[in-house]
Structures are given as structure tokens and as C-alpha cells.
From TrEMBL:
Its main location: membrane. It is found in: Cell membrane. GO terms for cellular component: plasma membrane. It is a multi-pass membrane protein. Keywords: Cell membrane, Membrane, Transmembrane, Transmembrane helix. It comes from the Bacteria. It comes from Alishewanella jeotgali KCTC 22429. PANTHER family: MEMBRANE PROTEIN (PTHR36115:SF4), PROLINE-RICH ANTIGEN HOMOLOG-RELATED (PTHR36115). Residues 60-216 form the RDD domain. The keyword Mitochondrion does not apply. This is Membrane protein. The chain crosses the membrane at residues 67-92, 98-118, 151-170, 182-204.
Length: 223
């Protein structure tokens, strides 16, 4: 005669299977025990796919906060440049390349100092994101902030001197040379490719790191 199975050690699914296949007429006591055990156990919840809107937001999901932070910082520097024009008696013109080059250079320095000392620009503070060291996720220093912004700073320095050179050429010769024109064009193409590459890079890694984050060994997180 077969030993009686120890149904108490069965899982919920095993009990369901035993209930389905047991001969109720031959083993009524066993059937009753299985039913009783099923009634005292809670059926495991079915795994449910969590809707996207209910999923917790990753601390690295910073694309839009960074976008709006940049807009806010740009607005701040528009005001700064406008006030500077009033102080120095210069007429503000949004199409003045020299003024925009000065603004870009100031902005790059501002980003380095703010990130180096606080890990955030004013825009990032408002949007609740911060730049941290990638490996340790601790505060970055001024050297790391400089390395992170090195390409943007370099581009703004080159653009500033290109504007001066072009302006000087027009002042002296009324025109610019073909080589200078090609240099300006090449710079514009490089700056455009750099900007697009920054954007694309952010979309294709889990921590939304742009190229300058890889250069600076940094990551931007929600706080």
C-alpha cells in the first residue's frame, strides 16, 4: 500500500494539480484535505506589468530636466548680457555676433565655476538635478568641471577670436579672405556636429550621459 502523500508540503500550484487528478471516490479523505489546504492558502498574485506612468522614475532620467535647466540658464544670461549692455552703454542686438560670442564665453566660465563649486547651475538647481562624479556619485571638483566643459569652453574661445578676426578683416579690407570664410564654415559645421552628437549620445545610454559627461567622468542625477 502506498504511503499517504504529505499534502502540507505541496505548493499552491501542486495542490491544484493534485485536486484535479485525484480520484475523489477512492480517496475522499485525501481530497478533503487538499480542498482544506487550498482554502487556507492565498493564491499567488499574477505578475502584472506595471504601466509606464506607474513606474518609478530613474534618478538618471534627466533629459528633460537638463533641457529646461539649459533654457533657464539661457534666460538668466540673456538678462545678464542685457544689463551689461546698459552698464557699458552698448546697444543690445540679438544678431550681434560679438555680443553673443562674449555671452557664450561667459556662460562657459559660469558653468565651470557653478559645477565645480556646487555641482549645479541655477537652472539645474531649479530643476532638481546635479552633476556628480560617475564612479563614486560624489561631488565633483573644479578640475573635473573644467574637463567636463573643456570642449564647450574651447569652442567659445575659438568663436570669440574668429569673430574678432572677421570683424578686423572687414574693418581693414572690407571683406574676408576665402581661407577665413572656409575656417568660419568649418567651425560652424564642427560646432553643429558636436551639438548633435551630445544630444544623440544622451539617448543611447542608460544614465543619459552626454559626451562631455564621458570626458569629465561625470553623471547627472535627480536629487
Amino acid at each position: 500500500m502506498f504511503d499517504k502523500p504529505d499534502f502540507s508540503s505541496y505548493s499552491y500550484s501542486d495542490l491544484l494539480d493534485a485536486k484535479e487528478h485525484i480520484d475523489k471516490e477512492a480517496y475522499p479523505e485525501r481530497y478533503a484535505e487538499i480542498v482544506n489546504l487550498l482554502q487556507t492558502r492565498v493564491q499567488p498574485a499574477e505578475p502584472r506589468e506595471v504601466p509606464e506612468e506607474e513606474r518609478p522614475i530613474s534618478k538618471y532620467s534627466t533629459f528633460w530636466p537638463r533641457f529646461f535647466a539649459a533654457m533657464l540658464d539661457g534666460l538668466v544670461f540673456f538678462v545678464v548680457l542685457y544689463v551689461q549692455c546698459l552698464i557699458f552703454g552698448i546697444e543690445y542686438d540679438a544678431n550681434d555676433n560679438f555680443l553673443q560670442a562674449v555671452n557664450g564665453l561667459q556662460f562657459a566660465i559660469y558653468a565651470i565655476l557653478m559645477h565645480g563649486f556646487f555641482g549645479q547651475t541655477l537652472g539645474k538647481m531649479a530643476m532638481g538635478v546635479k552633476v556628480l562624479n560617475h564612479d563614486t556619485e560624489t561631488k565633483i571638483n573644479l578640475t573635473q568641471a573644467l574637463r567636463r566643459e573643456s570642449v564647450n569652453l574651447g569652442l567659445n574661445i575659438v568663436w570669440f577670436f574668429l569673430i574678432l578676426t572677421v570683424g578686423g578683416s572687414f574693418e581693414l579690407h572690407g571683406d574676408i579672405s576665402e581661407n577665413l570664410a572656409l575656417l568660419v564654415l568649418g567651425f560652424g559645421v564642427f560646432a553643429f556636429v558636436w551639438a548633435v552628437s551630445e544630444f544623440v549620445t544622451m539617448l543611447f545610454n542608460d544614465k543619459r550621459r552626454a559626451i562631455h559627461d564621458f570626458i569629465g567622468k561625470t553623471v547627472v542625477v535627480r536629487i
